[in-house]
Amino acid sequence: MGGPLEIDDLHVRFRTQSDTVHAVNGASFEIAPGEIVGLVGESGCGKSVTARSIVRLESPGEIVDGHIRYDGRDLTTADDRTLRRLRGQELAMVFQDPSTTLNPVYPIGEQIAEALRVHREPDAQPFFKELARGASARLRSTSVRSTVLELMETVGIPQPDRRVDDYPHQFSGGMRQRAMLAIALARRPSVLIADEPTTALDTTTQAAILERLAELNDERGMGMLVISHDFDVVSALCERIVVMYDGVVVERGPTDELRSNPAHPYTKALLGCLPRRTEPRSRLPTVAGTPPDGAASSGCAFADRCPFATTDCRTSTPPTVAVGSDRTVRCDVPAARDAPVEAVRTPRPDTRSDAQRDAPSLAVDGGTDTAAAATAAPGDDSGRDPGDNSGSGPGPGPGPEHAAEPIVELEGVTKSFRQSDALLDRLLGTDDRVPAVTGVSLDLRPGETVGLVGESGCGKSTLAHLVAGLETPDDGTVSLRGQRVGGVDARTSSQLAEIDIVFQHPGASLNPKRTVAQSIAEPLLEAGWAEPRRDDRIATVLSLVGLSSAVADRYPRQLSGGQRQRVAIARALALEPSVLVLDEPTAALDVSTQATVLNLLADLQDELELAYLFVSHDLDVVRHIADRVAVMYCGELVEVGPARSTLSNPAHPYTQTLLDAIPDGRTGADRESRSATGSGSDALAGAPPSPAAPPAGCAFHPRCPAATEECSRTEPTFEAVGDARSRCLYAPEWRDDADRRETDADDSRASEDRPGISEGAPVPDVEAAESIETTDETDTQ
Amino acid sequence: MSKSTTELVPSNVGLGGLYRRYRRFALHTNTAIRLGGGVIGLLVLVALVGPVVSPYDPTTQVLEMRLRGPSLAHPLGTDALGRDVATRLAYGARVSLALALAATLVRLVLGTTVGLLAATGGRLVDILLMRLVDIQLAFPGLVLALVIAGVLGPSLRNVVIALSIVGWASYARVVRGTVLSVKERPFVQSAMLYGTPWHRLVKRHLLPHIVNPVLVLATLNLGTIVLAAAGLSYLGLGAQPPTAEWGSMIADGRNYMRSAPWLITAPGVAIMATVIGFNLLGDGLRDRFDPDHLDDRQRRRT
Amino acid sequence: MLRSLLARLGSLSVVMAGVSLITYGFVFLTPGDPAHTILREQRQSSPSAAEVAAFRAEHGLDDPFLVQYGSWLTDAVQGDLGTSYLQSEPVTSLVLAQLPNTLELALAATAVSVLLAVPMGVVSAVHRGTWIDRTSQIAALVGVSMPNFWLGYLLILVCSLWLGLTPVSGAGTLGQLVLPALTLGTGMAAIVTRLVRASMLEVLDADYVDTARSKGVRERLVVYKHALRNALVPVVTIVGLQFGTVINGAVVVEAVFQRPGLGTLLVDAVFARDYPIVQGVVLLTTFAFVVTNQLVDLAYVALDPRIERRGERP
């Protein structure tokens, strides 16, 4: 086992022709042997650069100051040979996006084998022999091959002997990340650095990968540095957490202490923003101001966004203060350190100088804008307090559901896409059509929010497009206020004005060559509004979404991500629609920005009586904002019900699977038990089946922990179960059982509680091999 | 495929952005644009002013002054018929630039129209037009131009026609590709949602996005056309004597290579400088406008 | 697999049908009556009406266009490209006689371009921003921008006339191949160098290259095993395309070095308005290009395992 890894006052900068970006400004922390440390921060805080610098892959950045010591050796001054040795034998790295981190032209097996060979003889690496090895499509050496197979099994790739010579593109995202993990493990490293290892994956896959990491740490005593923007991911895994902001470590300490009692205002802000920490439908705390841009600054980088900032904070660099044992904070203001999480909200007006108020909103995403929106909105902030919510808010109760006729109604909607666009296929009519949405019936009432959730590729975006009219159904009907409507071309202008859509990537949904005002003006122009009226409306919607009118003449590239999303929302609101389709509107945003956008959406709904179809893969967000939830799997709705009960007590095993997969950053004891129970949710981590060939019977049965043989034969119907509807043969029992679990202790995730579960669940469909995980993995290890 | 991956990657692109930014600045695009623009500007100046300033006529033969080396009176010497090489070079610049401009313009208009029609018309229109594009691209460019010019009869006008006919398909491809990719972008989908009619959609959202790639392609094309036209003239299919044209000047000078090397050097350098200028300008513009840049093979075809 | 092959053959035959139609239609671009113009230019005097009629009858120019085209195409498919107007020899044998010379030149030039360009492009990309990179970039820019006939004369001037190393013209010996191959190959190399560099720069930025580095793989292997293999896909395209259109350069280079070959045959035929030869050469070279293109596509499958799945490229 190697020694500790120490990062000491690391400075990394990027020099471009026009400016210098200081990505890391003196980061210090250490990882003891066998310890798991988490590194958290929002985009641009320097966490990835720090990670890359550890293995000295910071180029084109340069390390300008500080040291990285591993086992007593200073890596900042090490020569190439030493670095190669260390990378090959001690420090392994796993990168974020598994779709780009594996070499597409070499088989997985060869890529793992290469790591094995390098590990064995880091200094040999014969040039032509290696080239020749790459040229062969199969892994030849039998001894290496068997080690590779073992590694693949260790990381949970099923049927390794069949997959070892496959190419990366033949693997699903989760499997690719496992392959990356195998490459890392091939080196038997002492420290594993994982840079956003699960960010590009579905939640179910994420849960499986996290579990695997925890096991590996347990079994091998391997130290880890886990980098993530997601506090929950890191807390699920790590014993200690390091929080970075603007290239500086602002706080570090044991996970539980840090989460339960964060000291730095930024940590408080980050934790406060998480939707799961607040009551559903209440106002999320937000952080004022905009994330820093890496320009050199004096004083505390967070001062501009911190409600406790003193003049000292802005002028002099704050010292690092010890708070308790093994815990430090880079903040000198005791009031700030002791304040509760809730205190770090939108800053009170009196803490802001006049000068700042006069230069409003342009570079700012959060605070001022939200403040403006809040004042623009009728009713005051307290009306959104959690306590008040249950009484007056459109809660999960019977309120909106029976209040009015549905505004949008889907009935048996089916949509499939052509697989091939080739001329020949078109002429022969032989093209296979891949179903994206199958027989979906759903309605949306005025003023309510329906959350549409599911894994990627389940058809939720297609459904959103169908509602908006960007696609027309092959079968079934979409009705708007009781009238059947077709695609956009077939809708009347008043029908078009009723529904608008907000897309995931705010950058892509605005034409980069048009100013904000021009973009917002477009729908008005098409609706035939005269210019003065248009200008008025633009000003109105901009203030509705909390942007200053100065933004109107800017181009999208001059705005931050959150601001762009506000502009997109403003444009969607221009024609006073009654329905907004929100297609993953916050998925591309940082947590703090996400919080401000979610608040904004809630305010707008209250004020304008909007109905939302909120598409998301993030159950926490949906739980926070939705009245009802619709869960999609393989193009079908598998469960629809009130948000609160469905997301705590689901009537379909798939919903339970999704819930189980959420990393919840519970306490240390849970972390222990989690890694001890082993492959709990790993069995659910298989990829969804190919929509082109869905499994017979219940589409979910190959991944379902409660599947019986009956499930592979009979296709379940959509039946009412209590106040929800579910597509499961055993929905009533499942739910009853879940009720029992609910009343049981918190330990509802232990698998033995599940009804009808069998360790050797029948695996009737060999075709779905990809999705079958070896259920007895723990035994083989 | 790509959709599912982008769908889940949140905006932690800070690092990637940083690296991209770094790379873009490292290319010194401004230098390329300035240098290329400078060369072309100088050339335009020579083409405009040269003939006015020069005391010599480009076509009058002065047999007693044959094959004189460079001197003060004739800075680039004289050719086999006693004509001043520098003067002929300046007149040749007019020919080359005008020809390149004309042929590029025709290609651009023709190709852009076809590309737009293919991308926005119906499926059948698309299939038919793209087959036409495939057919045009299947011909070796210079050979096709050579044959067309030859059949029509050797003349500068026919060279323009020939070079216009062979190059438009690249524009059609670029325009169609760009339009098809922009068409899928959410902002166009939004525009469809509020009922924007097709023609306004094209004008407002699609055309602005094809301007840059087409401009880059055209700039690079100017260079290849200068090269191709010089080649055709060299073979005797372009400008007919006594017109001063760079390619035919090299053809005329080849017999005096040993005794009067300046005869082939001067026009050769002129052609090269012109093409370098256009290439620098085009590369610079491309790096500035479109970091993902055009397929190199599209500009390679004459 | 079978389906993609069928689709490929289908689009190939559509393209070739269009190409042959246009190729055959060239005759009718001739100003005035083709027969009259051809005869006048051959004899430098106006032919009589009877002579024109006889010429038209002999070459079947009186038939409707589609009939003429149909019979020409039917023959062409069977390998008969008609008879030369001037030499009264079958075009097929004239073309076949010249093919080896041009093929030899094409292969040699392609070899020159690949051998020069790949190492230069790789080194340039690996040392991006250094003087090595800048020098090779400037060299490539000059190479792309130089008219190849002019480069040919410069090479003749230096190597043959001043240094006396190589023969000036002709074909057949290795010495006679060197200068033409260099002339043609340099221009091609310049384009390939730029592409290799651009492609390598992109690939060197790819995440999997960092993965390889993070494994502790030697830098040289990172470049040649992990990066170059991926960078080669577009390079193979361009080399294939260049080989397929080498006739473009050959036309000019063969004229410079007074080298017999398809290019010379074509240029002479164009001037003499010997249309059967022109049509034959154009059809053959276009066909060669289209076929090379298909071969390049097949080579992709070997280079990039992802292509197989993607099927037909757009």
UniProtKB/TrEMBL annotation, chain A:
Q: Has the keyword Transport been applied to this entry?
A: yes
Q: Does the keyword Transport apply?
A: yes
Q: What is the name listed in the Swiss-Prot or TrEMBL entry for this protein?
A: Oligopeptide/dipeptide ABC transporter ATPase
Acidic residues biased stretches: 767-781
Keywords carried by this UniProt record = ATP-binding, Cell membrane, Membrane, Nucleotide-binding, Transport
Q: Which Gene3D superfamilies match?
A: P-loop containing nucleotide triphosphate hydrolases
Read off the InterPro entries from this record: AAA+_ATPase, ABC_Ni/Peptide_Import, ABC_transporter-like_ATP-bd, ABC_transporter-like_CS, Oligopep_ABC_C, P-loop_NTPase
**Assigned GO CC terms:** plasma membrane
Disordered as annotated region, ranges = 338-404, 660-694, 729-781
GO MF terms listed in the record are: ATP binding; ATP hydrolysis activity
Q: Give the organism the record lists.
A: Natrialba taiwanensis DSM 12281
In which residue ranges is the amino acid composition biased (Basic and acidic residues)? 345-357, 733-756
**According to its UniProt record, where is this protein located?**
Cell membrane
Q: Please note every region of biased composition (Low complexity).
A: 363-380, 678-687
Matches recorded under PANTHER family: DIPEPTIDE TRANSPORT ATP-BINDING PROTEIN DPPD, OLIGOPEPTIDE TRANSPORT ATP-BINDING PROTEIN APPD
Q: Name one GO biological process term.
A: peptide transport
Give membrane topology per the record: Peripheral membrane protein
Q: Where is the ABC transporter domain?
A: 5-271, 408-659
Automatic annotation (TrEMBL), chain B:
Q: How does it sit in the membrane?
A: Multi-pass membrane protein
Q: Which GO terms describe its biological process?
A: transmembrane transport
What PROSITE patterns does the annotation carry?
ABC_TM1
Concerning Pfam families, the annotation shows: BPD_transp_1, OppC_N
The record places domain ABC transmembrane type-1 at: 93-282
Which key words tag this protein in UniProt?
A: Cell membrane, Membrane, Transmembrane, Transmembrane helix, Transport
Gene3D superfamilies in the cross-refs? MetI-like
Places the protein is found: Cell membrane
- Family annotation (InterPro entries): ABC_transport_permease, BP-dependent_transpt_permease, MetI-like, MetI-like_sf, OppC_N
Query: Chief location of this protein?
Result: membrane
Task: Provide a GO CC annotation, any one.
Answer: plasma membrane
Transmembrane domains' residue ranges: 31-53, 97-120, 132-152, 158-175, 210-239, 259-281
Membership in a protein family: Belongs to the binding-protein-dependent transport system permease family. OppBC subfamily.
Protein name as it appears in the record: Peptide ABC transporter permease
| Originating species | Natrialba taiwanensis DSM 12281
Automatic annotation (TrEMBL), chain C:
| Coiled-coil annotated residue ranges, if any | none
Task: Name the Gene3D superfamilies on file.
Answer: MetI-like (1.10.3720.10)
Which InterPro entries is this protein grouped with? Answer: BPD_transp_1_N (IPR045621), MetI-like (IPR000515), MetI-like_sf (IPR035906), Opp2B (IPR050045)
The transmembrane segments are 12-30, 105-126, 138-165, 177-196, 231-257, 277-303
Alphabetically, the GO molecular function entries are:
nickel cation transmembrane transporter activity
Q: How does this chain sit within the bilayer? A: Multi-pass membrane protein
Cellular component GO terms, alphabetically?
A: plasma membrane
Q: What is its main location?
A: membrane
Every copy of the ABC transmembrane type-1 domain together lies at 99-296
Record keywords: Cell membrane, Ion transport, Membrane, Nickel, Transmembrane, Transmembrane helix, Transport
The compartments listed are:
Cell membrane
Family designation = Belongs to the binding-protein-dependent transport system permease family. OppBC subfamily.
Task: Specify the protein name.
Answer: ABC transporter inner membrane protein
Species name:
Natrialba taiwanensis DSM 12281
